[in-house]
Amino acid sequence: RKEVEQDPGPFNVPEGATVAFNCTYSNSASQSFFWYRQDCRKEPKLLMSVYSSGNEDGRFTAQLNRASQYISLLIRDSKLSDSATYLCVGPGYNQGGKLIFGQGTELSVKP
Amino acid sequence: NAGVTQTPKFQVLKTGQSMTLQCAQDMNHNSMYWYRQDPGMGLRLIYYSASEGTTDKGEVPNGYNVSRLNKREFSLRLESAAPSQTSVYFCASSVTTGLNEKLFFGSGTQLSVL
Description:
The complex is a heterodimer of chains A (111) and B (114).
Chain A: E1 4-6, E2 11-14, E3 19-25, E4 32-38, E5 45-51, E6 55-57, E7 60-65, E8 70-75, E9 84-91, E10 99-101, E11 105-110
Parallel strand pairs in A: 2-11
Antiparallel strand pairs in A: 1-3, 3-8, 4-5, 4-9, 6-7, 7-8, 9-10, 9-11
Chain B: E1 4-7, E2 10-13, E3 19-25, E4 31-38, E5 42-49, E6 56-57, E7 65-68, E8 74-78, E9 87-94, E10 104-105, E11 109-113
Parallel strand pairs in B: 2-11
Antiparallel strand pairs in B: 1-3, 3-8, 4-5, 4-9, 5-6, 7-8, 9-10, 9-11
């Protein structure tokens, strides 16, 4: 099992929809996670950090569920410009806690 | 500020050839990283450098060497390229290797090994 795992999608949603992605992790000691956004194989850019109970930034909400070992990203009122790949990042126990990327979830928002 | 600069952007090699990917950052960051990205695999850490003069292996170090030349520069070398090393390579930097640190990425190098 991968240390950080995501559903690769693609998620195809209409503009205005609400969409949620989940990411599961293996390192039960992990306390901090991140969501990065990547456009068309360009460099990833930090979208949100996720600590303790969660984080909200405008239309984006990230939450951490320690009991079930997953984090989620919720996007409300989807825009065409939200189309991208979303990468979940967390500490890996096989790499001395170094950050491990999930394989990414592709989102396509249609008019 | 340019941020993180990688060269070259594209490269085609024949099996067995060698090459060095260059990376430089102008943000005075202590930590630098090399990742590779393959379809369906996300980004995998090849090597990282917590500070000038130190380097450590990541998830997939085999077939690569690195050199932290100074605080600004972190190069990745392929001594004898193999088709399995065809990938997109990203360099990144952060202030430290702390788990709360934001990673800043270069624009990537698309490498094809024939």
